[in-house]
């Protein structure tokens, strides 16, 4: 958030993203998938090389130096040469940014990890490598190096200069193309609408302090889809067991078909969840001049309770179910969307401390755990105030907004990005930063030599 505000002030422009549904032919889709695995192999080998050089010589390679090795690899390895020359260079730049974020003491990024075969398939390209042509009101085509023209659904205009491009596929096999564009900065004046406190819950998707009824998310899967998903997952486990017993672990066509059906159901569920989230956050930003939410730490909230072998956890299944319910309501995604939608609609996003909001009375502000008599009921032990527990929490959230808050529209009191888009390297690495003990002890999956022989297996 501070970086984006500084960029707006200095240049009058800001970076924005545009994502469209890509419709490649079967031959183009097969080649894109192969390129995605090649980019993954390039990332893994470049990371392994950096770790090896640091162990042996005590220094860190950067993308400029590794590009010389990349040129040699393109001459020696046909599967690397098949990739557009700009794509592996972008991969190395992304690895540079991952290292910079790790070295930045103000950034929560961990040491870069190796990418698994099951990771998301993505091909990064610079903006000047892709040419976009508008075909009509609803369709456009992107000219991709070594692939030709690929059509995509023009659901909205680009609206700016293309800076970078990323082509990716989801678990269901659908392809998307994302453009990073530079657009004129939009300064929305304060909308002058009333403030609101919002409590994101599990049973109730959202409870607003100025509403008597909660906002509920429709079921992301119908009863029939849930039954089908359970049946498909049981079939998957049975087919995997048979594959290990009869085919040496090799997946057959029937198992692949089952996995694809599960992925399609999960993708449908994710789209419905995202649709509700966008509608909710847009309405909050449009209809209120200030939106107050809890500064939740979702990663800590959803940690597993299984414990260790020496100290096993208790009620692991119950905690696992709670974690799924919390993540199904996507509090982190709602916070991320509010961070950029509030400035666009002239409202302010404020994060408040979450401690005790469910135990504090919204009328007399007395805090007592005994006031939370049940999941849905709140009865204050001091003044006798009665309210729905989630609605009472939303009132307390709004009450915790600082009295001297900034009056400029679009300015959040606290940064709402868990990880900034681009981290700035510190003048000196922090203590122990050059010893990536967590991930550097293991080599590439299946071994580096096997990856060089067959990049799609490692």
Structure, explained:
The chain has a 7-stranded antiparallel sheet. A 4-stranded mixed sheet has the order 9-8-10-11. The protein has a two-stranded antiparallel ribbon with strand order 12-13. The chain is α+β, with helices and mostly antiparallel strands and 458 residues long. Helix 2 (26-57) crosses helix 5 and helix 6 (223-246) runs antiparallel to helix 7 (253-287). It contains 12 helices and 13 strands.
User: What order do the helices and strands follow?
Assistant: HEHHHHEEEEEEEEHHEHHHEEEHH
What gyration radius follows from the Cα positions, in whole Å? 25 Å
Percent of residues in helical segments? 40-55%
Question: How large is the count of helical segments?
Answer: 12
The residue-averaged pLDDT reads 83
Low-confidence stretches: 404-458
What is the tally of beta strands? Answer: 13
Strand arrangement, major sheet: 2-6-7-1-5-4-3
Q: What structural class is derived from the secondary structure elements?
A: alpha+beta
Strand content: 15-25%
Q: What is the overall shape? A: globular
In this structure, how is the largest beta sheet organized? Answer: 7 strands, antiparallel
Distance between the ends: 37 Å
Short description:
The protein is α+β, with helices and mostly antiparallel strands and 458 residues long.
Topology:
Layout: H1 2-11, E1 13-23, H2 26-57, H3 63-76, H4 78-81, H5 86-103, E2 122-126, E3 131-134, E4 139-144, E5 148-153, E6 161-169, E7 175-184, E8 195-199, E9 207-208, H6 223-246, H7 253-287, E10 290-294, H8 298-301, H9 316-328, H10 331-344, E11 348-352, E12 377-379, E13 386-388, H11 389-399, H12 448-453
